[in-house]
Amino acid sequence: MSVSALSDATRLTSYWWDATPRPNVAEAALPARADVVVVGSGYTGLVAALQTARAGRTTVVLDAEDAGHGCSTRNGGQISTSIKGGYAELTRRHGAQEAAAILRTGHASLAWTGAFIEQEAIDCDFTVCGRFHAAHSARAYEALVRSLDDHAPDLKAAAEVVPRSEQRSELGTDAYHGGVVFTRHASVDPAKYHQGILDRVIAAGAQVAPHCPALAFDRDGADLRVHTPRGDIAARNVVVGTNGYTGNLVPWLRRRVIPIGSYIIATEALPPDLMARLMPRRRVVSDTRKVVYYYRPSPDGTRILFGGRVSFSETDPRVSGPQLRAELVRLFPELAGIRISHSWWGYVAYTFDELAHIGERDGVLYAMGYCGSGVGMAGYLGMSLGQRLLGSAEGATGLDPIPFQTRPLYTGNPWFLAPSVAYYRWKDNRT
């Protein structure tokens, strides 16, 4: 399908921004000193700032763009346990005790997110809808079902096996070979969720400064001096939560996260009977490919949001949109005549071990590397960072002892991405 398949009416911005326009945060002079400076105003940075501001710490949040300009308002809104790898694999890599702690952190992030949204009364279309994880081949289905027993008894996720013969009860396609429903996984409108956190951070007294990047850090006695285009801030503590938008500010971190573009489309509004056939349970969906597709109904149930990676290198949403549409039609031939209302993209951050990481380096606290599953984990680790700054034991997680790996010759430019995508696509077609 050619690029011309996009109409003049197709928006090249996040679907979520229609209902939640980009925030207009009033500009104010930066203080000369703050207890905490947070770099990045996505879920991680804002939740960390919420903890410290409510505890009475003077807190400033900096962002190079609009507040929440990155993937916090561009993602698909799927909330899972955010952990890749089963118990056996994690045990081989980290030992049984640490593997269990990592998995418990994933379960804790899912539970915390639901509880946080309820406690804060954030209106963001949060729903525990369950996630249908579809098997792309018969072999993948068998491995997926076996993996459900690949955990210590107290670490098993609540799940229901769906054989291919019953697949139409979950999804109106025969393109898969069955799958598993993770019943506690959830969905959210990510931009409404972000706006809700932002409102509470500002109400708590933190200063949010969009279009004001942190340019450099200098040690100034016991403080870190944060240089910005609008002046310097001396800070007792600095938090970095930039994930896929991590630049040269902290080269050590940039060498450890791999920015990867994830692309999404939204269909035009579809007839209710068609939506009922295609997505009868209104669940979020993912599949077992390494180069994964993920999709869901919009919160109002009128359209499908479909995401994934469709190119070997980063591309334009004018190019990715028609390619994603072609994949959607391959799965659901009934959609052959549909149009795309939105096509957009954003950077996620992968890591070399496919785990999120949290820690401290040279006095800078950080959390990042959510590997495309960060809607729940990003906020949870933001909470953890904030609690660490307050000296609370609640800040401890099972990810704390895991070394943050890099690779020789990697400086932040993922030169290996195209051959890696090609390899995993080849592997997906063989398994």
β-strand amount = 15-25%
Largest sheet: 8 strands, mixed
Low-confidence runs of at least 5 consecutive residues: none
CA-atom Rg in angstroms: 21 Å
Structure overview:
With 431 residues, the protein is an alpha/beta fold. The chain has eleven helices and 18 strands. It has helices spanning 16-19, 43-54, 87-94, 96-120, 138-147, 190-203, 251-254, 272-278, 317-331, 374-389, 417-430; strands spanning 33-39, 59-62, 78-79, 131-134, 159-162, 179-182, 186-187, 207-209, 216-220, 223-228, 231-240, 258-267, 284-287, 293-297, 304-308, 340-350, 357-361, 364-368. The strands form three sheets. Strands 1, 2, 8, 9, 10, 11, 17 and 18 form an eight-stranded mixed β-sheet that branches. A hairpin with a 2-residue loop joins strand 10 (223-228) and strand 11 (231-240). The protein is globular and about 65 Å long.
Observed structural traits:
431 residues, alpha/beta, eight-stranded mixed beta sheet, 11 helices, 22% strand
Mind sketching the topology for me?
Layout (H helix, E strand, L loop, with lengths): L15 H4 L13 E7 L3 H12 L4 E4 L15 E2 L7 H8 L1 H25 L10 E4 L3 H10 L11 E4 L16 E4 L3 E2 L2 H14 L3 E3 L6 E5 L2 E6 L2 E10 L10 H4 L3 E10 L4 H7 L5 E4 L5 E5 L6 E5 L8 H15 L8 E11 L6 E5 L2 E5 L5 H16 L27 H14 L1
Parallel strand pairs: 1-2, 1-11, 2-8, 4-13, 11-18
Antiparallel strand pairs: 3-7, 4-6, 5-6, 9-10, 10-11, 12-15, 12-16, 13-14, 14-15, 17-18
Helix pairs in contact: 2-6, 2-10, 3-4, 4-10
